[in-house]
Amino acid sequence: MWRRLRSALRSLRGSPAAPPHGGGGRPPAAMERAVVRCLPSEPKLSLRFVLPDGSARHMQRDQAEPLGRALARIATNAAKGHGKAGKKSKKARAEGAEGEAEVPAVRLFSRDGAAVAEEVPNAAAWQDGAVLRIGDAQYRVERNPPALTELRLPRSLLAGFPVCPKVSAEFAAPQHCLFRWFREQRPESGGDTAGEAWVETAAAERVFTPSNALVGLRLKLRCTPGDGEQRYGPALEVESSGPVEAGPGACTFDARHLYTKKVCGHGSVRAVSYNILADTYAQTEFSRTVLYPYCAPYALEIDYRQNLLKKELAGYSADLICLQEVDKSVFVDSLAPALDAFGLEGLFRIKEKQHEGLATFYRRDKFSLLSQHDIAFSEALLSEPLHKELCEQLAKYPLVQEKVLQRSSVLQVSVLQSTTDPSRKLCVANTHLYWHPKGGNIRLIQVAVAMSHIKHVACDLYPGTPVIFCGDFNSTPSSGAYSFISSGDIAEDHEDWVSNGEEERCSMSLSHPFKLLSACGEPAYTNYVGGFHGCLDYIFIDRNALEVEQVIPLPSHEEITTHQALPSVSHPSDHIALICDLKWK
């Protein structure tokens, strides 16, 4: 860590915070930088600068402390630095110059050139553009300048697939940063290439898609943080850990992208629901040998699948994306940074006691987030008053109650508001119900909790708000859960109440007030693996407020079965994404 800190401090010398190509009205290069980090939420501010002798100083001072004390401390540090430099000089010793170092005059001047009074608190004194003088040396104060805290490239790079760096910054935003991409120089290239190991590409965007010509070469990215106000911080560089590799050729989603080249107009909403297959399930021995023995092992690896997923999702130009089986690390390090680059903001809800969960993304220039109302089914059932009646009914069936309460399933609910028409709101729900084939009764209870919670949000908290309910419901169109959601009620003698035998029979009559429609209909299958294929995923919409403009066709059966089943080298999940364009009635 100290090596990294010293490197960062060395970058303070002679690196004025100006755009890399000039301009911006910044100070001349001769003036050093004094970088101040000052946040209202923190009691201390930090000050970093490099003394004329080359020694770096990093000070922490109370924000409420009078400026005079901080200046006195700087003077003492400067004198110590000068004294040490003198002791190291044999010539100085020969000339008898070992006496005490002179304490330099230290003053702080505001932008207009007036000296800042020493009784002014540090937080108010150290303003951007002020000038710190230490003896004859002058430093331009940069308060909270743009700075990169993380810059990372994906481990796997495929030709024809977008490379989306993870960019984390302080006092900056990725959309205001400057990006320059470089490729490795080919060893066999003729001519004198000494000192030219990297060749700059024409790309200057945040996302870079390498061509087939770059297969076998590594990439380098140089990023300069910016804040959108013509302030820029020191650049960072990162090199890829491996070379660009050849892509898989045609993928199952290529033809679908022909329908989704452009984002919908503001009167429409493109919604996607997709179980992306969590790495925590794909990488087990059971998955490799029993569930997906037909899939090449490298195509089950998360780095490979993430390349496909990012290209697939970006190509749908969606306004809403509801994902299931999202590993937390995949969300944080891969999907959120990638989809952010394509204009989408992400929300994540992890399952109880699991490493994966749900993610909802929405297009920033179309929607703003009003509120989130996520729940865990088991916890809500026990603790929230609106489920009291259902909880009392369930208590009559202790075996079923125990199974319901053991489940880790969650419901993600986000209320979004149109950025162009504030009267238009959406209640977007996302879930992944219990998976077991004989768990129809458990899923009915989970749906009942979900519908009561969605009703509370869309009818009580935000009256009249249309609902979009996406997810992997693990329920075919003939199931009780599907019937309950789409019809609004479920009879107490429905066969799913005895889905796991008579000993787990529980008979309840349930209802909800919504008129919901499966926007993509009832496809032959949305999940296609070696031992099963069926329709388990849906995008339910409020038929009173929304209508379907178009459903993006699913891949053909031939495309799905090219490599026997899913997942495959050309499809990253065992499920198929549902995509539809909706509009307000």
TrEMBL record:
<dbReference type="Pfam" id="PF21171">
    <property type="entry name" value="PDE12-like_N"/>
</dbReference>
<keyword id="KW-0540">Nuclease</keyword>
<feature type="compositionally biased region" description="Basic residues">
    <location>
        <begin position="81"/>
        <end position="91"/>
    </location>
</feature>
<keyword id="KW-0479">Metal-binding</keyword>
<dbReference type="InterPro" id="IPR048821">
    <property type="entry name" value="PDE12-like_N"/>
</dbReference>
<keyword id="KW-0597">Phosphoprotein</keyword>
<dbReference type="GO" id="GO:0004535">
    <property type="term" value="F:poly(A)-specific ribonuclease activity"/>
</dbReference>
<dbReference type="GO" id="GO:0005759">
    <property type="term" value="C:mitochondrial matrix"/>
</dbReference>
<feature type="domain" description="2',5'-phosphodiesterase 12-like N-terminal">
    <location>
        <begin position="145"/>
        <end position="245"/>
    </location>
</feature>
<dbReference type="Pfam" id="PF03372">
    <property type="entry name" value="Exo_endo_phos"/>
</dbReference>
<dbReference type="InterPro" id="IPR050410">
    <property type="entry name" value="CCR4/nocturin_mRNA_transcr"/>
</dbReference>
<keyword id="KW-0809">Transit peptide</keyword>
<keyword id="KW-0378">Hydrolase</keyword>
<dbReference type="InterPro" id="IPR005135">
    <property type="entry name" value="Endo/exonuclease/phosphatase"/>
</dbReference>
<keyword id="KW-0496">Mitochondrion</keyword>
<keyword id="KW-0269">Exonuclease</keyword>
<keyword id="KW-0460">Magnesium</keyword>
<feature type="domain" description="Endonuclease/exonuclease/phosphatase">
    <location>
        <begin position="273"/>
        <end position="575"/>
    </location>
</feature>
<dbReference type="GO" id="GO:0000288">
    <property type="term" value="P:nuclear-transcribed mRNA catabolic process, deadenylation-dependent decay"/>
</dbReference>
<dbReference type="GO" id="GO:0006397">
    <property type="term" value="P:mRNA processing"/>
</dbReference>
<dbReference type="GO" id="GO:0046872">
    <property type="term" value="F:metal ion binding"/>
</dbReference>
<feature type="region of interest" description="Disordered">
    <location>
        <begin position="78"/>
        <end position="98"/>
    </location>
</feature>
<protein>
    <recommendedName>
        <fullName>2',5'-phosphodiesterase 12</fullName>
    </recommendedName>
</protein>
<comment type="similarity">
    <text>Belongs to the CCR4/nocturin family.</text>
</comment>
<feature type="region of interest" description="Disordered">
    <location>
        <begin position="1"/>
        <end position="29"/>
    </location>
</feature>
<dbReference type="InterPro" id="IPR036691">
    <property type="entry name" value="Endo/exonu/phosph_ase_sf"/>
</dbReference>
<keyword id="KW-0507">mRNA processing</keyword>
